[in-house]
Amino acid sequence: MKVNIVKESLLKPDKKFTLLSAFITLLNDRLSESILLPILPSFVLLFDSKASTYGLLSCTYQLAQFTASPFIGLMSDRYGRRPVTLFCITGSVIGISILSFTVLFNWSNSIATIPLFLLFLARLIDGLSGGTAATATTILADISSPEKRAKTFGLIGVAFGLSFFLGNIFVVIFARNTNNNFIIPVLIASIIPIINFLLVFFYLPETKPNSEINKSKTALKNPLKALFTVFKEEKIKKLSLAFFYLLYCFYWID
Question: What DSSP line would sit under 42-109, residue for residue?
Fold first, then answer.
């Protein structure tokens, strides 16, 4: 009984904790990736020298995330933000843990394809569960009034900018000053999702109104339909394409 009372008190709708949980979720979504992305080529070189292998590994995450994101959005509308966010963070923990194990384990006496398979598996799992940013953005929309929504959404830009800044700083500082260039950045990237999970589990209440959960079950048949509907709006289509080209050029240059 006492445990239930404590849990209920932790899950009371406190806007400060909800904002903090959403912010950390947005930060986690990009921070772990911005730590791993600069050293991802080095991971591949441990097991394979082909540039095409790195290209395929990089595309695996992006393609998995693109494929799964519409389904994750629909699941958050049907089952609520909190369980979907926890599910996505759990996937990130599993994916990054597999990657950490792969790059830190000694594979000298094993078949060469095993660590490569684990690398692809880790990126696939992390990508399939990579809908945390979209869900966290929806949480911000749920708890903000229309007149304050733009101000609240400013947290998204802050979280993304801070994550890319801190991620590169962590790599530069820790990769150069340790005997194993991977261990500290990889451990940091692994710990961040665990902290995020605990914060969401204990402090994030469900922000989706109960009356709207389980509303659109038929939408599950075609989750990409909403995407094409959005592109019918000219202004949104132009902004989306501009953002796509920005990210494409960023990853291509990197």
Answer: HHHHTT---HHHHHHHHHHHHHHHHHHHHHHHHHHHHH-HHHHHHHHHHHHHHHHHHHHHHHHS--TT
pLDDT digits (tens, 9 = 90+) for 123-134: 999 888 877 887
Of 160, 140, 159, 136, the closest CA to residue 150 belongs to 140
pTM: 0.78
DSSP for 193-244?
HHHHHHHHHHH----S-GGGTT--SGGGG-TTHHHHHHTTSHHHHHHHHHHH
Co-location of 171 and 248 in the same domain: no
Task: Confirm whether 211 is domain-assigned.
Answer: no
CA distances from 182 to 2, 97, 101 (A): 44, 13, 11
229/162 same-domain check: no
Same domain, 237 and 169: no
Question: CA-CA distance, 209 to 52, in Å (whole number)?
Answer: 47
Round to whole Å and give the CA distance between 17 and 24. 10
pLDDT, tens digit (0-9, with 9 covering 90-100), for 57-106: 888 888 888 888 888 888 888 888 899 999 999 998 999 899 888 888 88
- Based on the fold, state whether residues 40 and 150 are members of the same structural domain: yes
Asked if residue 228 and residue 116 are part of one domain, the reply reads no
The answer as to whether 2 is a domain residue is no
Helix (H) or strand (E) segment spanning residue 172: helix 149-176
